[in-house]
Amino acid sequence: MNVGEPSHTAIQVAACRAAHLRFDPAPHLLEDRFAEKLLGADAERLITSYADGGSWILLENRLFLPFRGRFGEDRIAEAHAAGVRQLVILGAGLDSFALRRPPELGGLRIFEIDHPATQGWKRRRLAECAIAEPEELEFVECDFETTSISEALRSSGFRPQAPAIVSWMGVVYYLEKETVRRALAELAGLLAPGSAVVLDYQLPLVDLPQRYHDIFAQQSAYLLRSGEPQVNRYRPAELREAIGVAGFARADLPTREELHQRYFAPIASQIPMSERFGMAMAWR
Ligand SMILES: C[S@@+](CC[C@H](N)C(=O)[O-])C[C@H]1O[C@@H](n2cnc3c(N)ncnc32)[C@H](O)[C@@H]1O
Questions:
Q1: How far apart are CA 152 and CA 244, in angstroms?
Q2: Which of 52, 87, 175, 274 could link 179 by a cystine bridge, Cβ 3.0 to 4.6 Å?
Q3: Residue 174 CB: number of other CB atoms within 10 A?
Q4: Domains in the chain with CATH codes
Q5: Which numbered atom of ligand 1 lies nearest the CA of 144?
Q6: Which atom, in ligand 1's list, is nearest to the CA of 169?
Q7: Closest C-alpha among 12, 57, 62 to residue 212
Q8: What is the pTM of this model?
Q9: pLDDT 10s per residue in the chain (284 long)?
């Protein structure tokens, strides 16, 4: 990340969530009515950059990134139904789940862990928008490259002896593989049985259709300027193995077809489902 600046990609993901609501027909994959507010003065420019007629990859993101949020929130609801009362959001960015938490998910304590530059910016935006920080939400600063996640969590009200659901969306491909390996091992060591981690990952470019190769240089240049280069990609088998080696009991990696049938087939949008991401669950 660029020193002293919040994550640019976190702002872009929030713009996708706002654009999905504005430009895609209902039913929406995710209804994030806070995203537009939190974006601030630049909201209109950011949101309209995802309007119809724009680049195909922006349209794919407009649909897939809200889906990713929805996938995580469905897993949170399932964990809550199973009795889990702690949610950890790693690299939370402008995630607004804590502000939108449905009343039926009562008693859930939420820990947002993020880079200090992004988290500080988000908290200022909340104050500027006069949005109160929910009582059940605790902010924890952590740079994953330099600070251990378990150390950060141990400095908070997190209770390692109780199970937790951990959401780690849109982050692992910005970290070195060694950092991901270490973080997974730490989480496997820290989390109580019955806990789970839900995350997304990106597939190797060589396994993707030509359209992704054509846009790769342009996309990489943008990410480099933002100070957020994407530095790792996994094949599903490799990620499954990394999760197992870290010490988790089980990994679930739904296929593209399963995700399409469950989430994309029922909606009215004509935008194709992105082929570059995968979703995974690691069970403690
Ligand atoms: C693409 S955003 C995803 C935000 C959010 N999870 C979402 O899906 O809307 C990436 C997030 O990872 C965080 N991040 C990136 N590198 C980090 C690091 N080294 N330590 C802590 N957080 C980091 C950024 O601050 C940002 O919030």
A1: 24
A2: 175
A3: 22
A4: 67-215+230-283 (3.40.50.150)
A5: 20
A6: 6
A7: 57
A8: 0.96
A9: 788 889 999 999 999 999 999 999 999 999 999 999 999 999 999 999 999 999 999 999 999 999 999 999 999 999 999 999 999 999 999 999 999 998 999 999 999 999 999 999 999 999 999 999 999 999 999 998 888 999 999 999 999 999 999 999 999 999 999 999 999 999 999 999 999 999 999 999 999 999 999 999 999 999 999 899 999 999 999 999 999 999 999 999 999 999 999 999 999 888 999 999 999 999 99
